[in-house]
Design brief:
13 helices; Spore Coat Polysaccharide Biosynthesis Protein SpsA, Chain A; 349 residues; alpha/beta; single chain; 12 strands
């Protein structure tokens, strides 16, 4: 082994698998082709029932496999791997979705950047669509602290030095010192928005978050939890968006934010109504109720929104949801404009 290799920082890549054997195998194969030599791999299996563990173990005997008895979610599952990676003396930890494929030099580019920029705590490559490899899926988000929103950046060139950048957990390289200072992913979130919450904590600790414009991965997107409108995703996103700003909304006025959150839930329900997804509407409302109750982790079927409250909210969703959302937010001008437009349409027809 040459001396250069000895002094390369050690990176341990964590792949979280949940009944995604074929995706995980393809991801590992791409990692094995990388040009970065000092890289170990941990596969954390979240209670898969598709025979993933013995197959991965047989095909890749050099990989560390950590089987969990049940699905611990994205946050806790990755934390299991992170703790093991720290025990393995990793300098950097790369949390990588199993439904991704990496380029040969992706990790080399990320490590070279953080080596020469010690203030960078988190860094992500550009994320491209697996099925459309010339189209960027994610190049960072901007945290608008004042308006309590996270805005997806459409073009990498829009990023400025003073921006508070939020990163996805899809391919997140974490400096060891960050984990010592900031801790682990917030397991209350289970899955979704935990990466944004972590990005916020890292920024508050004085580090920077960055996206490497020349490093690439390709992402198949939401293989484990279905489409963006699937009930599981809807429940977690609805609940965790509330957790995010209640945890990190500096100077937040709770009554105002609850009103705004309810308006967002009703609007979201209206979108799901237009798509004719009644189960996802229920998931949206149950997510809101779990949020108000402060119940994290996976969806608990024993915790149900009171029937009367659910009936009221469903009525709002079924009958002009955007009117109710504007009313909750006090957007009287929007309501007036909408009414005038409808009157004009009726007159013209």
């Amino acid at each position: 082994m040459n001396s250069f290799m000895v002094h390369l920082p050690k990176v341990v890549t964590i792949i979280l698998n949940w009944n995604g054997l074929e995706d995980t195998l393809e991801c590992i194969d791409s990692l094995n082709k990388m040009d970065y030599p000092n890289n170990g791999i941990i596969v954390v299996d979240n209670g898969s029932s598709d025979g993933s563990v013995p197959i991965i173990r047989q095909r890749y005997p050099f990989i560390t496999i950590m089987p969990n008895e049940k699905n611990l979610g994205f946050a806790m599952g990755n934390n299991v791997g992170i703790r093991k990676a720290l025990d393995m003396n990793a300098d950097y930890i790369w949390c990588l979705n199993n439904d991704t494929v990496v380029e040969k030099d992706t990790l080399t580019k990320l490590v070279n950047t953080v080596l020469y920029h010690p203030k960078i705590g988190l860094i992500s490559p550009l994320i491209y669509y697996y099925d459309n490899p010339d189209e960027i899926q994610f190049c960072g988000s901007y945290i608008d602290w004042e308006n309590k929103s996270i805005i997806k950046i459409k073009n990498f060139n829009e990023i400025t030095e003073d921006m508070s950048i939020s990163l996805w957990g899809t391919a997140l390289l974490i400096r060891r010192e960050v984990i010592k200072d900031v801790g682990y992913l917030n397991e209350k979130y289970f899955a979704y928005h935990e990466d944004e919450e972590y990005s916020m904590r890292v920024l508050k600790a004085g580090f920077q978050n960055s996206v490497h414009p020349d490093a690439r991965i390709y992402h198949k997107n939401s293989r484990s939890t279905g489409s963006n409108d699937a009930p599981m995703q809807v429940f977690l996103r609805s609940r965790n968006s509330y957790f995010l700003w209640m945890d990190h909304g500096k100077g937040i006025m709770r009554p105002y934010y609850i009103r705004r959150y309810l308006a967002q839930i009703i609007s979201y329900g209206g979108e799901l109504k237009e798509k004719q997804l009644p189960e996802s509407i229920d998931a949206c409302l149950e997510g809101a109720w779990h949020a108000f109750r402060g119940v994290g982790g996976p969806r608990n079927p024993e915790i149900q929104m009171p029937k009367t409250l659910k009936l009221v909210l469903k009525f709002m969703i079924q009958w002009h949801p955007y009117f109710w959302a504007d009313l909750l937010m006090g957007n009287i001008s929007e309501i007036y404009s909408g009414m005038v437009s409808k009157v004009k349409m009726k007159i013209e027809s």
